[in-house]
Amino acid sequence: MLLFFLGSAVVGVSLGYIIVCFIIPWLVPFSGPFVLLWHEVILEPAMDWLKGSSKPQRMLSYVQRHSKRGDPDSVISTIDIFCRSKEWAMNVGDEKGLILDKLICEANPSIVLELGTYCGYSSLRIARLLPPGGRLFTMEFNPAYAKIAKQIIAWAGLESKIQVLEGPSGDLIPQLKKKHAIEKCDIIFIDHWKDCYLPDTKLLEECGLIGKGTVLIADNVTFPGTPDYLEYVRNSPHYSSQYFKSYLEYSKTEDGLEKSVFLG
Ligand SMILES: C[S@@+](CC[C@H](N)C(=O)[O-])C[C@H]1O[C@@H](n2cnc3c(N)ncnc32)[C@H](O)[C@@H]1O
Predict the structure, then answer these.
(1) How do residues 201-239 score in pLDDT, each as one tens digit?
(2) Which atom of ligand 1 sits closest to the CA of residue 121?
(3) Candidate of 193, 197, 229, 246 to mutate for ligand 1, largest count of ligand atoms within 8 Å of Cβ
(4) What was the pLDDT predicted at 95?
(5) Looking at the domain 93-262, which fold is it?
(6) Could you report the predicted ipTM of this complex, rounded to two decimals?
(7) What stretches pass through the bilayer (predicted)?
(8) Which residue's C-alpha comes closest to atom 13 of ligand 1?
(9) In whole angstroms, how far apart are CA 46 and each of 50, 51, 64, 137?
């Protein structure tokens, strides 16, 4: 009887171990909602508790230990390695990142605005491609994320090209013209909370920061999805819009970028 009980316990624990350590992590990348649930709601708080640090702090420390200081490409690829092999994070990621790179190079922008900095991954991708004199303004309302982003940007040596503006985009956008002498944005990379995409786009229009030729690049338009924003840019006679299919960062779930050029 005791042997049967012990045997059942060993089989149960082994099965649980296999499910938690192998089957769930293998299945997670195929389902967007599971990616977020597993990584953001289950793993991240557990790691924070076990390690006594936040994920952005662990990312910064990994970057400082494994990347070449002053080399943005090395910092970017090190963050990708961290996110693929250690902990998933909500950067635009390496696959959509290549599309973003291409769109930035095609537009050759002088002034770029980014909505949603997080740890500065996409800021680095964009800023390293700017022409001499080009500037990136990036907005982040979480002070802890903004602090890490500034340190990662400084580690990559791009602090002269990137200005991190701390606060909610809805408050910061109306200040851009006067406070930062911006006439209009050449590119706007939209990657903050998904329900802010449409109201902030309309606010940018009202403030005169979107002009003829301004290119909007919106991330996560398929997953988690931004239906109201897509409906607006795809049906407005003022925009010419194009979808670039890809995958949710560090996963196998479909996602994509929407490029929308303001026609005037
Ligand atoms: C998806 S992450 C940005 C990822 C980043 N663009 C990258 O690819 O590396 C979204 C970020 O936007 C910030 N955020 C969300 N809504 C915001 C708002 N209204 N104003 C400023 N920051 C916001 C969040 O705190 C979060 O850090």
Answers:
(1) 999 999 999 999 999 999 999 999 999 999 999 999 999
(2) 9
(3) 193
(4) 98
(5) Rossmann fold (3.40.50)
(6) 0.99
(7) 6-28
(8) 116
(9) 6, 9, 23, 33
